[in-house]
Every structure is written in structure tokens, then in C-alpha cells.
Design a protein that fits this description.
By secondary structure, the chain is an alpha+beta fold. It is built from 28 helices and 17 strands. The structure holds iron/sulfur cluster.
């Protein structure tokens, strides 16, 4: 029986027959997977048949929060959305903050499992234990902010929290994301999964609270966490003022801010146009997720020409890279507008910007012509075309249709050797860090279960010099296999499962996160763990995600990097000359698989490892 933290309930929603039923969340599942990303993969692996069409009714959308969500622990209003990704066919897992996660807990649920497909555009309205299926004709086709507002007006409650898709998700763009307020659960095309189910939105309102199992223990555990947050030299002094843009200076100083579809790193560095100084001038306020004292969201206003007056929450660092660096656009106003449009149309900014940069390179190389682009000049630096393309992609207009599913799918259609210039791993476009100059980051891009996702094992040791668990040389290879495993497991166990914001974990809890989470779990939920057992949850979740991918047919050969990173050195700047040879990548992978206890030839978890983690049934399924 649950005495705190958890709601103890899952809501299973079937869109095909418009039914909803509550199920108990088994204690053993909570103990082994904690919540968030852990709950998501546990249900996805156990319930999804192998090889289902990600855009078919058999796919499921699992929205899960953690035991900490909605409690008074700071920075924990986070949710995880798990599904089979239409972009990669691997585990699609996307995190988001905002107010929806806390509201979902107040409504009494640890997870919503959405199944089937509605006959007509629909939205789901959950008010505590009441569930209604409502006609979404009025909001279908609308931008995300209009959709959320109209739903609140229709239901006559401005405190309702909504998550929804925009036109991109309705048009099944595999780069579509899911938006709640202005927060995105991005990457991996999960907005298209919602669109394929004819599900425009989920609106939620709850009146419950989160119980605490042991007030004294909880109070002291929470104090340890807030003390660590206050002691961080970056969390409040820097990050809460400039948000994730603090990585802009770090990566440009190291010469690993990628640009011009990864041909211009160190040479095209748009510091003057979109760097911290320009952002400071554009900033008009900041935004918080529910219960977060950090408030890293940066509200920026475009001020010049036809862009003047457009406000966006962001662009955050990865968006600056995608719509600035990748496209060669040194114009912050254009980046603000592209960011705003992406949020409104429901597109992931990283994938969209990288895909536009890819198209620009093809245009400059003559692989795409004016005939292909419908007369658009697609040169690097053309900010007007960049902004226009965001809309064309969301609505699948003209060349936007060709680009709407990301670089891998576009290269397959275009041919003519374009795959060489498609910057992705497992179909997911690369984030900002030019990993030729940060080798543990490279290994993480190659091995992270969703594809190239910097958030699944961020190597802060290489970017910010954090000597935890040990000091590393960002350009060295030795020890990177073990480090990558440690980063992936710790971040999963301390951020993605209990749902502490990963920014807070990285900046304040990297040294003591497993202790803090163990103590918080005991105080809040009454479930006791050692710090090592918390770490093991991360390892268990990463192994189960790997097993899902293995079941879908992924092998060691998918743990790789785009050809460009293995053959072309960084052209300029402080990391000039760096690349990752195939042999170096092989050595890092060997070390990583050894650290993970996975088979060296295929990168498959061994029966011994799965059994040690309590996943013997998974070994049976994989016929190991
Ligand atoms: S640090 Fe930023 S992203 Fe994280 S919970 Fe706080 S406001 Fe949200």
C-alpha cells in the first residue's frame, strides 16, 4: 500500500471504444522502476507487440509522472511520454515540464496509457476520476496556444492544464512534438503518434494532493536537496538568469558549437547575432515550471522588421543551434520567430532546424535545385527561407512535405548520395554539441536508446569540467565507455524516473543525486532504497529500453555516428582537426558494452545481466 508520493493508480484510456478504466499501480513496479521514464518503458515493453506500426492504433502513448511530481520537492513537475517512435522505430521517450505534470498527479494518476484510435478528432477531458471524450472539430487545425485556450474556455475553467498537438502532429510529421502551455515534449515524433490516433489534446484538472509518508525524514531529505541547489555555483548565479543558453558560451569557447550542417564548426560561430549579449537585449521576462524556484524559461521578443512583436519562450540553447548555427542564420529575431512557430505548429525545434540545415547543404551542393524547392533560395544564412520552411514543413507544403519526416527519411527519398549529409543517429537528428571534440558525448549519441539524444547521458564532465565521478580529458577516449554508462544510468535514476528536472540534477546533484533521491524516496513514499539501489533503477531502465530496441531489430551496427563525424575533421576553431575514427569509436563501444555487461558482437544485454537486474522474463522474450 502506498503511503506517500504515488497516486497508486493508472488510467487506461481506449480511444477506439471510448472507454477509460482505472488500474492499480503494482507496488513492485514502482519499487523497481520508480516512475516517469521507468514506468513508461515497463508498460511499453510489456504491452506492445514487436514490430507494430508506430502510427497504427496498436501503438500506445504512455504519459507518466514520478513519485516526486506534485509534491513540495522543487523542480519536479515533470512528465515522460513513452511510445514507439515513428521517426526511429526505437523507444521514443520525451520529457517535459510545465504545470500539466503536477495537475495529473492532483487528478490522481501516476500514468495515463492511451490506446487505439478515435474515429473522429477527439480530445480527452479528465477531471479527477471523471473521463470524457469530446469532439475536437472546433480545435482541429488550430495552433497549440489557440487550442489550449479554446478548450479552457469551453470547459469554463482557466485552471485546466492541456497538452496538445499542432498542425504538424495532425499532418503526421515525424518531427512533431507535444506541447503543454509553451513546454514541448520534443524529439522522436510523438506528436505524430497523437495525430495518428486523432487525438488533438488531453485536458486535465485535479483536486487531490500528494501525501507524505514520513514528514521528519522528508523535511530533512528536502533540505539536503535545496542546500545542494543553493551551493551550486551555476544553478542560481547563472542558469536561472540565462537558462540553457549558458551552454552557448561553453560550447563556442571549446569550439564544439556545430554549424552549417556540421561543415562549419569553429568557422561559423554566430556569437554576435544570437549570443548571450543579443539574447539579453531580447529578453523581456522569464518563466517557471510548477514549483520550480529556478525559473529558467527565457521570454524573448523579436523587435526588427517583419519579425517585430513576436514573443517566444526561448529560444533555448538547442534551438539557437538548430535555427541559428545549423542554418547559418546569425539573426536572433528570425530564430525567435522560428522557435515561436515551432511551438505553435507543434514541431520539434532540433529536428526541424537540422533538417532545414541539411536541405540548405544539399541546395548549395546542387543536389536540390530551384525546381525541387519551388523557387526558394535555400542557401545557408537565408533567414527568411528558414522561417518559411518551418511553416511549409508543418503543413507539408511543397518541399516541406519532403522534409517533414526528418533527414533520414528525406535522404532516402532524395537519393543522389544525400545520406552522407544526413546528420542523425538511428533516424534522430543530432543535437548541438559537435561531439568530434567531446568523446563521451559522441558515445552517448551513438548508444542512447532514443538515438542522438544529449539528455539521456549528458557528459557535463566534458563541457563544464565537472570532476564527477572523475576528471576527464574531453578529447581522450580512455574511460569514456564507463563514463557514458555512468551518466546514462545516473541521469535516468535521479532525473528521468523520480522526475527531478535534469538541469537541476546536472548542475546541483551530480555528486550526491543517488543519496538525495534515496532519502527523498524514503521520506516521501516510505519505500526504502540504498543509493546503489537507486543507481540500479537507472541501469534496469536503460537495459529494458535496450531490450525493446533489440526486439525491434536494432544491433551494434546501429550504435554509430554519421559518416561525416568519422571522416571529416572539425574545420576550424579551438577543436580544429578533431574527429572520431571508426577504430576509436569501436574501442569506446567495446569498453561501453563491457561496462554494461552486454554481448560485444551484437550489443545485446546478456541473460546474466538481465537476470541480475530482475529482468529474467525479458531474456526469455529475447530468446537469449
Ligand atoms: S529548471 Fe527550468 S526546466 Fe527545470 S523545472 Fe525549473 S523552470 Fe522547468
Amino acid at each position: 500500500m502506498y503511503t506517500g508520493g504515488y497516486a497508486g493508480k493508472i488510467l487506461r484510456i481506449n480511444l477506439t471504444d471510448k472507454t477509460a478504466k482505472e488500474e492499480a499501480l503494482p507496488l513492485e513496479v514502482s519499487k523497481n522502476f520508480i516512475g516517469g521514464a521507468g514506468l513508461g518503458i515497463k508498460y511499453l515493453f510489456d504491452e506492445l507487440q514487436p514490430h507494430v506500426d508506430p502510427l497504427g492504433p496498436e501503438n500506445k502513448l504512455i504519459i507518466s509522472v514520478g513519485p516526486f511530481t506534485g509534491s513540495s520537492i522543487p523542480s519536479t513537475s515533470r512528465l515522460n511520454i513513452t511510445s514507439k517512435s515513428p521517426q526511429t522505430n526505437a523507444v521514443g521517450s520525451a520529457l517535459s515540464g510545465g504545470y500539466f505534470p503536477a495537475e495529473m498527479k492532483f487528478a490522481g494518476y501516476d500514468a495515463l496509457i492511451v490506446e487505439g484510435k478515435a474515429e473522429k478528432p477527439t480530445y480527452i477531458w479528465i477531471k479527477d476520476s471523471e473521463v470524457n471524450f469530446r469532439n475536437a472539430a472546433k480545435v482541429w487545425g488550430l495552433k497549440t496556444s489557440d487550442c489550449q485556450q479554446i478548450i479552457k474556455d469551453d470547459l469554463k475553467d482557466q485552471n485546466i492544464r492541456c497538452m496538445c498537438i499542432g498542425p504538424a502532429g495532425e499532418n503526421l510529421s515525424k518531427m512533431a512534438c507535444i506541447i503543454n502551455e509553451r513546454r514541448a515534449a520534443g524529439r522522436k515524433g510523438l506528436g505524430a503518434v497523437m495525430g495518428s490516433k486523432n487525438l488533438k489534446a488531453i485536458a486535465i484538472r485535479g483536486t487531490g494532493t500528494v501525501a507524505v509518508a514520513d514528514q521528519e525524514k522528508f523535511k530533512s531529505a528536502k533540505k539536503a536537496m535545496t542546500d545542494s541547489m543553493k551551493a551550486s555555483p551555476v544553478l542560481y548565479p547563472v542558469f536561472s538568469k540565462v537558462g540553457s543558453s549558458c551552454a552557448f558560451d561553453a560550447t563556442t569557447d571549446l569550439g564544439i558549437f556545430s554549424s552549417k550542417n556540421w561543415t562549419g564548426t569553429g568557422e561559423f560561430v554566430p556569437k554576435d547575432g544570437i549570443g548571450l549579449e543579443a539574447q539579453g537585449q531580447a529578453k523581456v521576462g522569464h518563466a517557471h515550471c510548477y514549483g520550480c524556484p529556478v525559473g529558467c524559461g527565457q521570454l524573448m521578443l523579436a523587435r526588427k522588421g517583419s519579425y517585430a512583436g513576436i514573443l517566444s519562450e526561448g529560444p533555448e540553447f538547442e534551438t539557437q543551434y538548430a535555427f541559428g548555427g545549423q542554418t547559418g542564420v546569425d539573426n536572433l529575431d528570425a530564430v525567435i520567430v522560428a522557435d515561436h512557430l515551432s511551438d505553435e505548429l507543434g514541431l520539434d525545434t532540433i529536428s526541424t532546424g537540422v533538417t532545414i540545415g541539411f536541405a540548405m547543404e544539399l541546395f548549395e551542393k546542387g543536389i536540390l535545385t530551384m525546381e525541387d524547392t519551388g523557387g526558394l533560395e535555400l542557401n545557408f544564412g537565408n533567414h527568411e527561407t528558414m522561417v518559411k520552411l518551418v511553416q511549409m514543413i508543418a503543413f507539408r507544403q511543397g518541399i516541406g512535405d519532403l522534409l517533414a519526416d526528418g533527414v533520414k527519411a528525406a535522404a532516402e527519398k532524395i537519393g543522389k548520395g544525400s545520406e552522407k549529409f544526413a546528420m542523425h543517429v538511428k533516424g534522430l537528428e543530432l543535437p548541438a554539441y559537435d561531439v568530434r571534440g567531446a568523446k563521451a558525448h559522441a558515445l552517448n549519441y551513438a548508444t542512447a536508446y532514443p538515438g542522438a539524444d544529449h539528455n539521456k547521458g549528458y557528459a557535463a564532465q566534458e563541457i563544464f569540467g565537472m570532476p564527477i565521478p572523475y576528471e576527464v580529458d574531453r578529447l581522450g577516449y580512455e574511460g569514456k565507455g564507463k563514463l557514458c554508462k555512468w551518466n546514462q544510468d545516473v541521469q535516468c535514476a535521479t532525473a528521468d524516473c523520480p522526475t527531478i528536472c535534469s538541469f537541476v540534477v546536472l548542475m546541483a546533484l551530480l555528486h550526491n543525486g543517488t543519496d538525495v533521491v534515496a532519502d527523498l524516496m524514503e521520506g516521501l513514499t516510505g519505500l526504502s532504497y540504498t543509493p546503489d539501489e537507486i543507481y540500479e533503477v537507472g541501469e534496469r531502465v536503460n537495459n529494458l529500453c535496450r531490450a525493446f530496441n533489440v526486439r525491434e531489430g536494432f544491433t551494434r551496427s546501429d550504435d554509430t555516428l554519421p559518416e561525416r563525424l568519422l571522416t571529416e575533421p572539425i574545420p576550424g576553431g579551438p577543436s580544429k582537426g578533431q574527429l572520431i575514427s571508426k577504430e576509436d569509436l569501436k574501442q569506446m563501444l567495446d569498453e561501453y558494452y563491457t561496462a554494461r555487461g552486454w554481448d560485444q558482437t551484437n550489443g545485446v544485454p546478456t541473460r546474466e545481466k538481465l537476470t541480475e537486474l530482475g529482468l529474467g522474463y525479458v531474456a526469455d522474450q529475447l530468446k537469449l
